[in-house]
Amino acid sequence: MLGIVTAGIAPGLALLSYFYLKDQYGSEPFSIVFKTFISGALLVFPIMFIQYVLDKENVMQGLFYEPFITMGLLEEFFKWFILFYTIYQHVSFDEPYDGIVYGASVSLGFATVENIFYLFANGLEYAVGRALLPVSSHALFGVIMGYYLGKGKFSLESKWKWLWLSLVVPVMLHGSYNYILITLEDWLNLMIPFMIFLWYVGLKKVKKARLMSTKHFEDNLLFEKPFISGK
């Protein structure tokens, strides 16, 4: 049991640590990141219940609805909802890169609990595959969501466009991941290039968010200098 729990938690914590330590302008308060992680973990239970009801009632089932709506949209919307209503206006969200940290945190909280449940049901031999595919993909969906939330918060214009993209882009990527996994017999042949693409996009967003944070702090420093110097 301990081995399964450890294997279920380890990849999520490793990925969260990676994105957390990439924050170059002061790490986010651990307590806020932890609460966001736990919020994502708790999301598993209502989402599993809703998905169970939809499946039993045969609602929104099919080649499109299941991967994109009952899985992709449902899961990403709840993550987005938590980020927008608990983190977006929080005082700790004070630079664009913070969106990456909080987006990864809520997604990896969800992925970690989901991963533990899967390993209990199917066995420890799936731990490596789960770490490389579902856990990593959830992390990257969260990174991309957080990137657009950060861009929306600190942009002077088109805020609602970025907020809209912060939901739509992860939903489409998540749906595409599920579609490959559920509908294709030779899914691995397409999943490998898809994951390479997802990592490329995610790491590119990380780099862009770091550059936006650098500009954000430089602009703030220039604004504060006249007041500091007494001019």
From TrEMBL:
Bilayer-crossing residues are 6-21, 33-53, 68-88, 100-121, 127-150, 187-203
EC main class here is: hydrolase
Keywords assigned: Cell membrane, Hydrolase, Membrane, Protease, Transmembrane, Transmembrane helix
GO MF assignments = peptidase activity
Q: This protein's superkingdom?
A: Bacteria
- Gene Ontology CC: one annotated term: plasma membrane
Q: Where in the cell is it found?
A: Cell membrane
Q: Which family does it belong to?
A: Belongs to the protease PrsW family.
Q: Name the chain's protein.
A: Protease PrsW
Write the lineage as a comma-separated list.
Bacteria, Bacillati, Bacillota, Bacilli, Bacillales
